[in-house]
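hey m, so remember when u said the C-alpha coordinates were messed up on ur end? i reran from scratch. heres the input so u can diff it against urs
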Amino acid sequence: MSNNFVVPRFVAQAVPPHTEGMRIGLLGGSFNPPHQAHRAISRFALTRLQLDRVWWLVTPGNPLKENGNLHELGERMQAAREVADDPRIEVSCLESVIRTRYTIDTINTLRRRFPGLRFVWIMGADNLAQFHRWQDWRRIAAQVPMAVIDRPPQSFRALASPAAQALSRYRLPENKAALLADRRAPAWVFLTGLKLNLSSTGLRNPDGSWKGSA
Protein backbone atom coordinates (compact mmCIF):
# COMPACT_ATOMS: atom_id res chain seq x y z
CA MET A 1 0.00 0.00 0.00
CA SER A 2 1.20 3.48 -0.82
CA ASN A 3 2.38 5.57 2.12
CA ASN A 4 1.21 9.18 1.77
CA PHE A 5 2.66 10.51 5.01
CA VAL A 6 4.84 13.54 4.31
CA VAL A 7 6.94 15.71 6.62
CA PRO A 8 6.70 18.99 4.64
CA ARG A 9 9.26 21.09 6.48
CA PHE A 10 12.01 18.54 5.85
CA VAL A 11 11.28 17.90 2.16
CA ALA A 12 13.15 20.99 0.93
CA GLN A 13 16.24 19.92 2.90
CA ALA A 14 16.22 16.52 1.17
CA VAL A 15 15.98 18.01 -2.33
CA PRO A 16 19.24 19.12 -4.00
CA PRO A 17 19.76 22.77 -5.00
CA HIS A 18 17.94 23.74 -8.18
CA THR A 19 16.53 26.66 -10.13
CA GLU A 20 13.21 27.13 -11.90
CA GLY A 21 12.98 25.41 -15.27
CA MET A 22 15.78 22.88 -14.71
CA ARG A 23 15.57 19.56 -16.54
CA ILE A 24 16.27 16.91 -13.91
CA GLY A 25 16.72 13.17 -14.31
CA LEU A 26 15.66 10.98 -11.38
CA LEU A 27 17.56 7.74 -10.83
CA GLY A 28 16.13 5.72 -7.97
CA GLY A 29 17.67 2.66 -6.37
CA SER A 30 19.12 0.98 -3.33
CA PHE A 31 22.71 1.88 -4.31
CA ASN A 32 23.84 -1.15 -2.31
CA PRO A 33 26.58 -0.48 -3.28
CA PRO A 34 26.72 2.42 -5.74
CA HIS A 35 29.06 1.73 -8.66
CA GLN A 36 30.48 3.15 -11.87
CA ALA A 37 27.50 1.99 -13.95
CA HIS A 38 25.26 4.33 -11.92
CA ARG A 39 27.63 7.16 -12.78
CA ALA A 40 27.94 6.15 -16.43
CA ILE A 41 24.15 5.88 -16.84
CA SER A 42 23.73 9.32 -15.29
CA ARG A 43 26.35 10.99 -17.48
CA PHE A 44 24.92 9.23 -20.55
CA ALA A 45 21.44 10.53 -19.67
CA LEU A 46 22.74 14.05 -19.03
CA THR A 47 24.12 14.14 -22.56
CA ARG A 48 21.45 12.27 -24.52
CA LEU A 49 18.47 13.87 -22.76
CA GLN A 50 20.15 17.29 -22.42
CA LEU A 51 19.49 17.40 -18.68
CA ASP A 52 20.82 19.95 -16.22
CA ARG A 53 21.12 17.53 -13.30
CA VAL A 54 20.57 13.92 -12.29
CA TRP A 55 19.37 13.21 -8.76
CA TRP A 56 20.15 9.84 -7.22
CA LEU A 57 17.23 8.91 -4.97
CA VAL A 58 18.65 6.46 -2.46
CA THR A 59 15.72 4.37 -1.28
CA PRO A 60 15.22 3.10 2.29
CA GLY A 61 14.43 -0.28 0.71
CA ASN A 62 13.13 -1.80 -2.52
CA PRO A 63 9.65 -3.37 -2.17
CA LEU A 64 10.51 -5.90 -4.89
CA LYS A 65 13.80 -7.04 -3.39
CA GLU A 66 15.00 -8.82 -0.27
CA ASN A 67 16.39 -6.10 1.98
CA GLY A 68 18.06 -8.25 4.62
CA ASN A 69 21.57 -7.33 3.44
CA LEU A 70 20.81 -3.66 2.86
CA HIS A 71 23.48 -1.38 4.31
CA GLU A 72 22.54 1.64 6.41
CA LEU A 73 21.13 4.60 4.47
CA GLY A 74 23.88 6.97 5.62
CA GLU A 75 26.58 4.57 4.45
CA ARG A 76 24.95 4.19 1.03
CA MET A 77 24.46 7.96 0.73
CA GLN A 78 28.12 8.69 1.48
CA ALA A 79 29.33 5.99 -0.89
CA ALA A 80 27.02 7.33 -3.61
CA ARG A 81 28.47 10.83 -3.26
CA GLU A 82 31.99 9.44 -3.62
CA VAL A 83 31.10 7.40 -6.71
CA ALA A 84 29.11 10.20 -8.39
CA ASP A 85 32.09 12.59 -8.44
CA ASP A 86 30.31 15.03 -10.77
CA PRO A 87 28.74 18.36 -9.81
CA ARG A 88 25.77 17.57 -12.06
CA ILE A 89 24.92 14.41 -10.07
CA GLU A 90 23.29 15.00 -6.68
CA VAL A 91 22.42 12.43 -4.01
CA SER A 92 19.13 12.67 -2.10
CA CYS A 93 17.44 10.83 0.78
CA LEU A 94 14.00 12.19 -0.13
CA GLU A 95 12.26 8.81 0.09
CA SER A 96 13.44 8.38 3.65
CA VAL A 97 12.17 11.86 4.54
CA ILE A 98 8.70 11.27 3.10
CA ARG A 99 8.74 7.75 4.55
CA THR A 100 8.08 5.75 1.44
CA ARG A 101 9.65 3.04 -0.67
CA TYR A 102 7.35 3.63 -3.62
CA THR A 103 8.26 5.64 -6.70
CA ILE A 104 4.71 6.92 -7.15
CA ASP A 105 4.89 8.71 -3.78
CA THR A 106 8.24 10.25 -4.67
CA ILE A 107 7.01 11.55 -8.01
CA ASN A 108 3.78 12.88 -6.49
CA THR A 109 5.78 14.79 -3.87
CA LEU A 110 8.26 16.26 -6.36
CA ARG A 111 5.63 17.32 -8.89
CA ARG A 112 3.44 18.89 -6.23
CA ARG A 113 6.17 20.80 -4.43
CA PHE A 114 8.35 21.73 -7.42
CA PRO A 115 6.02 22.34 -10.38
CA GLY A 116 8.63 24.53 -12.12
CA LEU A 117 11.06 21.65 -12.60
CA ARG A 118 10.94 19.24 -15.54
CA PHE A 119 11.54 15.71 -14.31
CA VAL A 120 12.49 12.59 -16.26
CA TRP A 121 12.49 9.16 -14.60
CA ILE A 122 15.58 7.14 -15.57
CA MET A 123 15.75 3.35 -15.34
CA GLY A 124 17.65 0.45 -16.81
CA ALA A 125 16.10 -2.01 -19.24
CA ASP A 126 16.05 -4.61 -16.46
CA ASN A 127 13.62 -2.38 -14.56
CA LEU A 128 11.40 -1.86 -17.59
CA ALA A 129 11.11 -5.65 -17.80
CA GLN A 130 9.45 -5.70 -14.38
CA PHE A 131 7.89 -2.23 -14.41
CA HIS A 132 4.40 -3.76 -14.50
CA ARG A 133 5.05 -5.06 -10.98
CA TRP A 134 5.70 -1.59 -9.54
CA GLN A 135 3.11 0.09 -7.35
CA ASP A 136 0.78 2.19 -9.57
CA TRP A 137 3.07 1.84 -12.56
CA ARG A 138 0.50 3.25 -14.97
CA ARG A 139 0.17 6.39 -12.84
CA ILE A 140 3.96 6.76 -12.80
CA ALA A 141 4.05 6.61 -16.60
CA ALA A 142 1.18 9.11 -16.80
CA GLN A 143 2.93 11.67 -14.58
CA VAL A 144 6.55 11.79 -15.69
CA PRO A 145 8.43 11.10 -18.95
CA MET A 146 10.72 8.07 -18.72
CA ALA A 147 14.10 7.22 -20.21
CA VAL A 148 15.06 3.55 -20.36
CA ILE A 149 18.77 2.78 -20.70
CA ASP A 150 19.51 -0.40 -22.63
CA ARG A 151 21.34 -3.06 -20.60
CA PRO A 152 22.18 -6.01 -22.86
CA PRO A 153 21.15 -8.81 -22.74
CA GLN A 154 17.92 -7.39 -21.25
CA SER A 155 16.83 -5.56 -24.42
CA PHE A 156 14.39 -8.08 -25.87
CA ARG A 157 12.87 -8.99 -22.50
CA ALA A 158 12.41 -5.32 -21.64
CA LEU A 159 10.80 -4.31 -24.94
CA ALA A 160 8.53 -7.38 -24.88
CA SER A 161 7.41 -6.70 -21.30
CA PRO A 162 3.77 -5.92 -20.41
CA ALA A 163 4.59 -2.29 -19.56
CA ALA A 164 6.55 -1.67 -22.78
CA GLN A 165 3.73 -3.15 -24.83
CA ALA A 166 1.07 -1.13 -22.98
CA LEU A 167 3.04 2.09 -23.48
CA SER A 168 4.30 1.38 -27.00
CA ARG A 169 2.33 4.19 -28.67
CA TYR A 170 3.97 6.75 -26.38
CA ARG A 171 7.54 5.76 -27.27
CA LEU A 172 9.66 8.45 -28.91
CA PRO A 173 12.26 7.67 -31.57
CA GLU A 174 15.71 7.59 -30.06
CA ASN A 175 16.81 10.56 -32.16
CA LYS A 176 14.16 12.66 -30.36
CA ALA A 177 15.57 11.89 -26.89
CA ALA A 178 16.63 15.49 -26.27
CA LEU A 179 12.95 16.49 -26.43
CA LEU A 180 11.78 14.06 -23.77
CA ALA A 181 11.97 16.42 -20.78
CA ASP A 182 9.63 18.84 -22.57
CA ARG A 183 7.06 16.19 -23.47
CA ARG A 184 3.87 15.71 -21.54
CA ALA A 185 3.63 12.25 -19.99
CA PRO A 186 3.12 9.54 -20.94
CA ALA A 187 6.25 9.62 -23.07
CA TRP A 188 9.35 7.45 -23.04
CA VAL A 189 12.47 6.66 -24.98
CA PHE A 190 14.74 3.61 -25.15
CA LEU A 191 18.39 4.68 -25.28
CA THR A 192 21.05 2.41 -26.73
CA GLY A 193 24.81 2.72 -26.99
CA LEU A 194 25.96 2.44 -23.38
CA LYS A 195 27.90 -0.79 -22.92
CA LEU A 196 28.25 -1.51 -19.21
CA ASN A 197 27.28 -4.66 -17.36
CA LEU A 198 27.97 -3.82 -13.72
CA SER A 199 25.33 -4.48 -11.09
CA SER A 200 25.10 -3.92 -7.35
CA THR A 201 24.26 -7.61 -6.90
CA GLY A 202 27.55 -8.58 -8.53
CA LEU A 203 29.45 -6.25 -6.20
CA ARG A 204 28.12 -7.83 -2.99
CA ASN A 205 29.58 -10.78 -1.13
CA PRO A 206 27.27 -13.63 -0.02
CA ASP A 207 27.04 -12.10 3.47
CA GLY A 208 25.85 -8.78 2.04
CA SER A 209 29.14 -6.93 2.54
CA TRP A 210 30.47 -4.90 -0.39
CA LYS A 211 33.36 -6.36 -2.34
CA GLY A 212 36.50 -4.39 -1.75
CA SER A 213 35.22 -3.10 1.62
CA ALA A 214 37.18 -3.63 4.77
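this time it looks ok to me. The chain is about 30% helix and 15% strand. if urs says something different then somethings off w ur setup not the seq
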